[in-house]
């Protein structure tokens, strides 16, 4: 006797299920089929097993036709929820990466702003000596290092020009041309 029972079962595309058969004395059978879902959503656990109790000859004739659509619906629901869970996890990972990148950019911008404010405050103080080439060079270097990351880069350029101007005014004849030439803004677009 050849049957196609397992071939028909495989054709349904159920990857994981539990089936139980209970043979009754009146020549009928109860068949229970429970699809095991792979998605993590516990809501799928409320789907009850598909249960039929019919005479054996009727089960032979129409069992697969009867279970085809409900099983496909259950498998489809599982697949949709599983795809949603995967997409949600990917979105969370991308969100974490984006958040980390934003925090990094914010940290760099804050450091640049702090440096800018510190240099601005330093040159505004009466103790700052524009004749001190090392101090001027350090201030200009600090400003150059933040020019590309500082959100208000125009302010940095203006402050650099202000430092150069004040240094030139302090001592026109003793200006350190190397210091000023190193910070020529005409050729910089960063």
UniProtKB/TrEMBL annotation:
<dbReference type="Pfam" id="PF19556">
    <property type="entry name" value="PRTRC_E"/>
</dbReference>
<dbReference type="InterPro" id="IPR022273">
    <property type="entry name" value="PRTRC_protein-E"/>
</dbReference>
<feature type="domain" description="ParB-related ThiF-related cassette protein E">
    <location>
        <begin position="1"/>
        <end position="175"/>
    </location>
</feature>
<protein>
    <recommendedName>
        <fullName>ParB-related ThiF-related cassette protein E domain-containing protein</fullName>
    </recommendedName>
</protein>
């Amino acid at each position: 006797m050849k049957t196609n029972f397992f071939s028909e079962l495989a054709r349904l595309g159920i990857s994981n299920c539990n089936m139980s058969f209970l043979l009754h004395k009146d020549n009928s059978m109860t068949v229970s089929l429970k699809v095991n879902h792979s998605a993590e959503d516990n809501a799928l656990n409320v789907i009850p097993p598909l249960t039929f109790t019919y005479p054996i000859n009727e089960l032979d004739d129409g069992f697969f036709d009867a279970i085809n659509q409900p099983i496909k619906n259950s498998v489809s629901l599982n697949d949709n929820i599983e795809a949603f869970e995967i997409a949600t996890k990917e979105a969370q990972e991308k969100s974490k990466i984006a958040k980390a990148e934003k925090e990094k950019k914010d940290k760099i911008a804050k450091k640049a702003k702090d440096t800018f404010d510190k240099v601005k405050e330093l040159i505004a103080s009466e103790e700052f000596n524009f004749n001190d080439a090392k101090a001027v060079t350090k201030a200009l270097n600090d400003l150059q290092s933040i020019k590309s990351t500082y959100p208000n880069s125009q302010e940095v350029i203006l402050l650099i020009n202000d430092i150069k101007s004040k240094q030139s005014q302090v001592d026109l004849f003793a200006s350190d041309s190397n210091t000023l030439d190193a910070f020529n803004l005409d050729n910089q677009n960063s």
